[in-house]
């Protein structure tokens, strides 16, 4: 990452990550300017910082606002659902920006992110990952909580990794739930929490399932990395799962101490894994 110059711009979606990035950067003494995506992020959460909400159709105004605050480096942080064409209602400048993004705006999530980052770079911004400004977000491979996965759970993780890679190759999602070799649910546009909500009614008798999350093949590491946190653990408990397994050094772990403590209290394993350990054809 280049040496910091001026305020850090944050394009903020939903969830706790954008707030944590803003607070950490401000605490380091560097100013921040937060452009909140209307309908995704909560403007009130950024009341302590220079901030303004923008809808997608006014994205060109948003970039001009960031430039007006002296921003050169930008972090894309938080959950965002892809807008529909009817919801955009772009102004004239927004129409031009949308034309530059092109059809990627209405295809896969990673496609639009790559296109957006390309537009940002063309407009003079440097996109940096949240993990570059907030240390400790990406755990290394380790069993963080609970009992070590048994052979059945390890088989479910291996199956889940293969499914996630297939989903990711199609630019669809980053997670799935597998129980006793059966895929109970896959993550699409609804996100992890909603996926877990569906799983409770689908669970089978016997050992519970496993939530598996991993980075999409070829995905940029600058935005939209898989994320888990306390709410993920709560959803896993409600769905009757027995563990969460996520790609080490590629998955954001929010509220690390709280997430680990809740998993441990519920008796769930929380495993940051090296994909090579669970790739088909390898031995444990």
Automatic annotation (TrEMBL):
Gene3D superfamilies: 3.40.140.80, 3.40.50.20
Domain LpxI C-terminal: 143-270
Domain named LpxI N-terminal: residues: 8-136
Pfam families xref list: LpxI_C (PF06230), LpxI_N (PF17930)
Name of the featured protein: LpxI family protein
Organism annotation: Neoroseomonas oryzicola
